[in-house]
Structure formats: structure tokens, C-alpha cells
Design goal:
396 residues, alpha+beta, six-stranded antiparallel β-sheet, 9 helices, 22 strands, 22% helix
Length: 396
């Protein structure tokens, strides 16, 4: 995740308020530890904190691109899952790209199609684009509202951010609660009403909405609605379609230039994700396991093992493992298990997670990396590992 923020004022030049802008940016540091940037212009400033996933060396933000004499600058938090399709369409229209980042594709999509670009996006996002020629800000939030976007309006001014505390770092936003805010804290918290920012005067751009801001007006409109339609498919067709959609969604989210990570809670979704992600997909996997406030990285165990062909399975052979998370400490045992024929099938047990919740229910999660050694012909480095039963015990 990244962090975005901005401050616009059509009457007062705020670009000299470096201390305020720095304080706003600082509140987003945990969202984007890899880099940070700002773009100042006569009417304001755009801020960005980046967590690099695609093209780490490039794709820095805020990012500016030109079309003719017009200048467009974006600050963007999110990920597009149809980046390459959009890049192909835009290239066919004559656009050239200098990075592999989805940021450049998103910005170019807005330059080409304007607000209609939202109909083409497959992803999770919150972004703002400053059109220097029109002196207009355009901002949008993804259809489901995965990425946050809060804003505060005052006379001739507008402040926005990924987080409330970023807005509160600006002295224009007072830390006040009205009656509605108090009700939400006491009755709905940690939830909120859609569109509410809890703090007095702060609003949230709702899922599936976009806004336009210029000197004269602020306009907020929905661009997507969830609709109910009759479901004519049979049970067999429904199962096949659901599987297709899930496989497509998961495979699109495996695109990354940095190590992948699976966070296992023991729930249905986190168990299904790595199982499906591994089916028929070749990749390198880094494992990070969270339990009872502690972080244990299994990357030294998982890295270097090429995963392919149905290699990930959950809740399959728990009895073959010996890893237990107890309240006294976190233990991880990684053991290779030889299959029916010598080295024909190797299970590299990455983790078994056991945890009791408040109700005393024990949750267990096992992540197995499986592969047939014939796939590793000539890979002496991997065979050297799997030919030994290696037990690694890490205790806290």
C-alpha cells in the first residue's frame, strides 16, 4: 500500500508551508516506506509515500506526463490488475511508455479517456490527477472502496489524504467531533457511515465515486453501482464460472517485482488464496507468518524452491509436521518428507500455525510446498537441499 495526500488553495499560495506539508507526509510513512515525493504548483501541492511493488527503480510519484502543452500529475495508491491490456491499447493509440509501472498506465489512461477511464480499470485504487492546463483536480476511488480517500473542504481550499491523521496534521482541520461523529464512535466504531470521516467537516469519497474540483465548484458523482440480476446458470456452470473468476483474480494479483507474501490467519479466504495461487503457477515464494504479535519470516526456508503444478495445499498432511505455536513461543519446523519413491515427491513443510482465539477454538494452518524432483533436473542447488531431511527449529 502507498499513501497519498494533497493540499489545494485557489486564493492563498500554500507551497511555502513546508513544515505542514512535511508533517502531513510523515503521517503516511508507514504506508510507503520505500520513497516519498511532492509536486508543488501555484495552487497547491501533491504528496506521495510509496511502497514499491512494480518497477521499484522507476514509477516514482507524484508522476507528471505531457500531452501537447498540457501537463498532468498523479498521486496514486493502489494496483491495476489489467495493466498490460491497458498498456497495449494505449500503445496502439500512439502513446509511448518509459516505465513498467501501473502508475504511468493509469495516468496515460486518464490523459486519453478522461473520467471514462474508470470504466476500463480493473483494480483497487485511490488517486488524484492535477490538470495544470484546466487547473482542475480529478480524484477517484475503486468500486469496492479498498483504498481510502478522505477530504476536507474550506473556503477556496481542499485537503485530501489516505488517512485521517494526515488531515489532522494540517492546522486547517480542527480535531472536533459533532453529534454525528460521537454517535459513530460510540455506536458504530470501528465502523463508519459511508461517506463519513467522523471528524467534523471531513468526508470520505465513497466506493465507486469520483470528484472534480476547480476554482468554481466541487462535484462528486458515482461512476459505478452494484446491481442485482437474475442468475440463470446451472449449478455446474456456476461452479465453473466461480472457479474461473477466482483463478483469474488471484493470478492477476501475483504480478510483482518484489517477493510475494502469504499471510495465513486460518480463515477460508487466506487458506484458499495460496492453494489457488500455486496451482499451475511457477514462482518464487517468500513466507511471512504472523502470530500473537510476533513476526517470523520463513523466507530463508522458502526462497529458492521453485513452486509449480499444484504445489500449495492446506490442511493435507498436518500429522507429518511438527510445528506448534504456543503461548510461550513460536516454533517453526521445516522438514522434507520423502514420498513413495525416493525423492519422487518432496513436501517442504513451511509452517503449521496453531492458535487459540478468545473462545478457545484452535485454528491450524499448514502450508506445504510440493514439487517433483524431475522438474529440477540439473538444479544441483535444489536437489542438494531436498536430498536431506532438514529440520529447522526456530524458537522465540
Amino acid at each position: 500500500m502507498c499513501g497519498i495526500a494533497g493540499w489545494l488553495d485557489f486564493e492563498t499560495n500554500i507551497t511555502g508551508n513546508d513544515a505542514v506539508l512535511e508533517a502531513m507526509s510523515k503521517t503516511l510513512e508507514r504506508r510507503g516506506p520505500d520513497s516519498h515525493g511532492e509536486y508543488k504548483f501555484a495552487e497547491g501541492c501533491l504528496l506521495h509515500r510509496r511502497l514499491a511493488v512494480i518497477d521499484p527503480q522507476n514509477g516514482l510519484q507524484p508522476m507528471t506526463r505531457m500531452k501537447g502543452d498540457a501537463s498532468y500529475t498523479i498521486t496514486y495508491n493502489g494496483e491495476l490488475y489489467n495493466t498490460e491490456e491497458l498498456r497495449h491499447d494505449l500503445a496502439a493509440r500512439g502513446y509511448e511508455f518509459v516505465t513498467r509501472s501501473d502508475t504511468e498506465v493509469l495516468l496515460t489512461s486518464y490523459i486519453e479517456w478522461g473520467e471514462a477511464c474508470l470504466e476500463r480499470l480493473n483494480g483497487i485504487y485511490a488517486f488524484a490527477v492535477w490538470n495544470a492546463e484546466k487547473k482542475e483536480l480529478f480524484a477517484a476511488r475503486d468500486r469496492i472502496g479498498v483504498k481510502p480517500f478522505f477530504y476536507y473542504v474550506y473556503k477556496n481550499g481542499f485537503i485530501f489524504s489516505s488517512e485521517l491523521k494526515t488531515l489532522l496534521a494540517n492546522p486547517m482541520v480542527e480535531p472536533l467531533l459533532d453529534e454525528d461523529g460521537i454517535r459513530e464512535l460510540l455506536l458504530l466504531g470501528p465502523g463508519r457511515k459511508p461517506g463519513s470521516g467522523v471528524i467534523y467537516g471531513v468526508k470520505e469519497l465513497k466506493p465507486g465515486e469520483y470528484l472534480k474540483l476547480d476554482r468554481e465548484r466541487l462535484t462528486v458523482k458515482p461512476y459505478w453501482f452494484l446491481t442485482a440480476e437474475e442468475h440463470p446458470d446451472s449449478e455446474t456452470e456456476t461452479i465453473a464460472h466461480t472457479r474461473e473468476l477466482l483463478n483469474d483474480a488471484i493470478s492477476r494479483q501475483l504480478v510483482s517485482d518484489v517477493p510475494l507474501c502469504c499471510l495465513l490467519s486460518g480463515g477460508l479466504d487466506s487458506s484458499f488464496y495460496p492453494t489457488t495461487a500455486g496451482a499451475g503457477v511457477s514462482m518464487y515464494l517468500d513466507l511471512c507468518l504472523f502470530g500473537r504479535g510476533s513476526l517470523l519470516s520463513g523466507s530463508s526456508l522458502g526462497r529458492g524452491f521453485v513452486c509449480s503444478g499444484g504445489l500449495l495445499g492446506l490442511f493435507r498432511t498436518i500429522d507429518q509436521t511438527a510445528a506448534v505455536l504456543r503461548s510461550s513461543g513460536f516454533k517453526l519446523i521445516c522438514r522434507t518428507v520423502e514420498g513413495g519413491q525416493a525423492f519422487a515427491l518432496v513436501h517442504i513443510v513451511a509452517a503449521l500455525f496453531m492458535q487459540g482465539d478468545a473462545g478457545g477454538k484452535i485454528q491450524r494452518v499448514a502450508l506445504f510446498l510440493s514439487a517433483r524432483t524431475q522438474q529440477y533436473a540439473g538444479r544441483a542447488d535444489l536437489l542438494g537441499v531436498v536430498r536431506h531431511n532438514v529440520t529447522v527449529l526456530l524458537c522465540q
